[in-house]
Design a protein that fits this description.
Blueprint: H1 8-41, H2 47-59, H3 62-73, H4 80-87, H5 95-119, H6 123-131, H7 136-147, H8 149-164, H9 168-173, H10 184-192, H11 197-238
Helix pairs in contact: 1-5, 1-8, 2-5, 3-5, 5-8, 6-7, 8-11, 10-11
């Protein structure tokens, strides 16, 4: 039984991973909603460029993504220097940098899930709401977002799971500092560098697999639920 319990260092890595993942999801959700709505509802010049930039972290090696973030948010970077001078905020070698790295890498997954949910909404429902006096913003908050809720939640769950497993970009911008930036993947990597590290890492690996598996099951369940709700709504409208 005691072998199944996590050591203080392991609990610290798990706790930090959860904090980083929640921060990454919460910080990127508003921008993900705006980006998904823009791509789902608007046609404009340069749309393909926006789509490419949004999906670029999916195909770039995570280490390259991390290096680009380091260039931008480092103490000498054009964004990092401004953040430190004006807000006193430093991202390099800090858990907030790990959250930024996780948010960037997971952003395409969140946008894709939300975009699909928004594209599936019958816009006649939104038009009906506006015809009854609701403004565009009110319709968006009271009609569009509730109808897209399964996609929103699925996107958040997928982004959370991806953030839990983020390694390459995180180690570039945040390093691997125990208790500060050493998340589950960094902890496992560090432990495996020592002889017999496999025996010490398996408990955290199990935690990571369980969290990722639960997240995938929840996301698939939400997607299935959204599909069933769309069928019901269409049947109701036709009836």
């Amino acid at each position: 039984m005691t072998a199944l319990l996590l050591s203080p260092d392991e609990w610290q890595a798990v706790r930090l991973s959860v904090v980083v993942a929640f921060a990454a999801v919460a910080g990127s959700l508003p921008l993900a909603i705006a980006t998904a709505w823009l791509l789902a509802r608007r046609n404009f010049r340069g749309k393909i460029v926006v789509e490419m930039l949004v999906n670029l972290p999916l195909v770039l090696p995570p280490v390259v993504t991390g290096w680009l973030l380091l260039v931008a948010f480092g103490t000498r970077g054009f964004v990092g220097r401004w953040l430190e001078e004006w807000l006193g905020l430093r991202l390099v070698f800090d858990w907030k940098g790990a959250a930024v790295a996780s948010a960037v890498v997971a952003f395409p997954l969140m946008v894709r899930a939300i975009r699909v949910a928004l594209a599936m909404i019958d816009q006649d429902v939104e038009d009906a709401a506006r015809s009854l006096g609701a403004g565009r913003l009110g319709t968006f908050w009271r009609v569009t977002l509730p109808l897209a809720r399964p996609g929103l939640v699925a996107g958040c769950v997928l982004a959370f799971a991806r953030s839990i497993g983020e390694f390459g970009a995180t180690i570039m911008i945040a390093g691997s500092i125990p208790g500060q930036t050493r998340t589950i993947p960094l902890y496992v990597y560090n432990v495996l560098q020592s002889p017999g590290g496999g025996d010490a890492a398996w408990r955290v690996v199990v935690v990571s697999v369980v969290v990722s598996g639960v997240a995938l099951v929840v996301a698939q369940g939400l997607e299935g639920r959204a599909g069933r709700e769309r069928v019901v709504r269409r049947g109701t409208v036709r009836g």
